[in-house]
Amino acid sequence: MKDGIIALILLVIMVLNFFDVLTDISLGVPTWHILSESSIVLISAIGAFFLFKEMRAKTSNIISLKNELNNTDDKLKNISEEMKNARHKYSEVIRTQFERWALTTSEKEVAIFLLKGLSFKEISAVRNTKEKTVRQQASTIYSKANVEGRHEFAAWFFEDFIQS
């Protein structure tokens, strides 16, 4: 919008100066004055031309981006449904494994937060417990899962998804 207004102003300047040049020629104004006003007409025309050209390119680019965005949205909707189904199935696998390890309700909550990558401090803030409690629960989780720590715990759920 701003570029359009500037281009329109340049066109008005060009037209008004063009008629001024014609008037100056008929009145016999010195050549240097006619040349300076003619240069204003020319510069205004060039400026307006480039602004219109850029506006057209931007409009074309916006249309292209909108089309690409619509196509991506359509693809994302399909992928999102697949991801929702996969996420639901994966959550079930995790819950089943937590049951096999006989995790308590609190340990399950902490385990989910650990898998999501939260720190002990963040987990304690979310659960409104002491950080020491979270550390003890994490230690119990690792023991029940027969893993050495957070990374091995997360890898236990993730490693089967990576193919060599």
Tell me what the structure shows.
By secondary structure, the chain is mainly alpha-helical. It is built from 6 helices and no strands. α1 packs antiparallel against α2 and α3 crosses α5. The mean pLDDT is 88.
Topology:
Blueprint: H1 2-27, H2 31-100, H3 105-115, H4 120-127, H5 131-145, H6 150-158
How much of the residues is beta strand, in percent? under 5%
**Major sheet attributes:** none
Tell me the series of helices and strands, N- to C-terminal: HHHHHH
The oligomeric status of these chains comes to single chain
Q: Give the number of helices.
A: 6
Question: Percent helix among the residues?
Answer: over 70%
Radius of gyration of CA atoms, rounded to a whole number:
35 Å
Low-pLDDT residue spans: none
Coarse structural class: mainly alpha
Mean pLDDT: 88
Q: Would you count the extended β strands for me?
A: 0
Distance between the termini: 54 Å
The coarse silhouette is rod-shaped
Note the main attributes of this structure.
mainly alpha; 6 helices
Short recap of the structure:
By secondary structure, the chain is mainly α. It is built from six helices and no strands.
